[in-house]
Write a structure and sequence with these properties.
Strand order of the largest sheet: 11-12-7-13
Radius of gyration: 21 Å
Shape: elongated
CATH architecture of the largest domain: Alpha-Beta Complex
Distance between the termini: 68 Å
Strand content: 35-45%
């Protein structure tokens, strides 16, 4: 059995789950998520816990077992607590600001980059520290949006300028040594 797949998912206070065949709907204080899963994987709601089972012991089914359980757990956590990714903007003159719900980035281009907020995602910007908070209930969407923002200007190895995840290590290079006389 998959170690992750066989662990039951306990439902926190205020979270309701509807299982209709392979379609699962999770409602919580922060919102609602719905997703369909493979028919080979069984999902059941028993005594306030979600259980995930599989039909066979093939390697593909074992992988789907753990994946399904992880996706369900992310849905439950997202609707109860939500998810957040924090990005840092570093560089002289580099800054981020909010224009309505959209994110505006000034990162060394001749133009301003406007990043529209997808539905279900909220941005928060700390102008002094250069931090961008990406928040939402769908873990997959939060991670994808944060990755797309980072792609606008990834950190470069010589001065470290660019947009990076908070706590991300950027390997630095020495650059030119210059002439030795």
């Amino acid at each position: 059995m998959s170690r992750i797949g066989r662990m039951p998912i306990s439902l926190p206070e205020g979270v309701q789950v509807e299982v209709q065949g392979q379609r699962v709907r999770v409602r919580g204080p922060r919102g609602e998520l719905e997703r369909s899963f493979r028919p080979e994987i069984g999902i059941s709601l028993e005594e306030g816990r979600l259980l995930v089972t599989r039909t066979s012991d093939e390697p593909r089914m074992r992988a789907l077992h753990g994946l399904t359980r992880a996706l369900l757990n992310n849905m439950v956590q997202g609707t109860s607590r939500g998810f957040e990714r924090v990005l840092e903007v570093q560089g002289v003159g580099y800054r981020a600001e909010l224009t309505g719900a959209d994110l505006t980035l000034h990162v060394g281009f001749s133009h301003v980059v406007v990043f529209p907020a997808p539905s279900g995602i909220q941005f928060e910007v700390e102008p002094r520290s250069g931090l961008i908070h990406v928040r939402g209930i769908d873990k997959e969407l939060v991670g994808q949006v944060a990755s797309d923002i980072r792609k606008v200007r990834p950190p470069e190895p010589y001065k470290g300028k660019g947009i990076r995840y908070q706590g991300e290590y950027v390997r630095r290079k020495a650059g030119k040594a210059g002439k030795v006389v």
